[in-house]
Amino acid sequence: MDPQKILDYGAKLIVIFMCIPIHEYAHAWAATKLGDDTPRYQGRLSLNPLAHLDPIGALCIFFIGFGWGKPVQVNPIRFKNYRKGMALTAAAGPISNIIMGLIGIVLYKLFYVLYIVHYSIAFYYVSLILYYFTAINVGLAVFNLIPIPPLDGSKVLFVFLPDKAVEFFYRYQMYFFIGLFVLLYVGILNTPINWLSNQILNFISWLASLPYMPFVG
Fold this sequence. Notes:
Layout: H1 3-33, H2 38-41, H3 55-64, H4 82-118, H5 121-144, H6 152-157, H7 163-171, H8 173-186, H9 190-209
């Protein structure tokens, strides 16, 4: 099989069984810490991928390159502050992806150095997989922060909007979701998502390089 196809399938499996489950677990963890035990009662406070797997969303990832996990349900009336609680719970998912991306880029640099030193093809492929892992997580974080319902970014945006605007977004969120699919299909969002993902990727790559700077030059 073509190595590129193997990497592509491997990347999709990483998204389905690692990136999305940790993303959804982060939502559940944040909601629980903020006072809502709904995710715990529903078995979502778990790193078990099966607890967060949406079969249709997983199939979409494989066949169209875009999909989703099972949304974490929360009861916002349990939060001390409804809007801030929703925003922090929503932001926890993308933040978890950025953290995973930072861990991934640190490991990528380590294994890439090992590849250069030992010139082992095994280290090369491990470093390549880790770079894919990092890029995927950064891309997921950026995508989920788009302020279009029902993505996480919309719930962060709601903190700054008046009640009538929030009600409007919730009332018509299905139409926004359909519109999001259309924008993705025609590729309008590709350029801004890729640009911002590259900026974040460059930044965390720079952060991961800091420990090596005293030894450079």
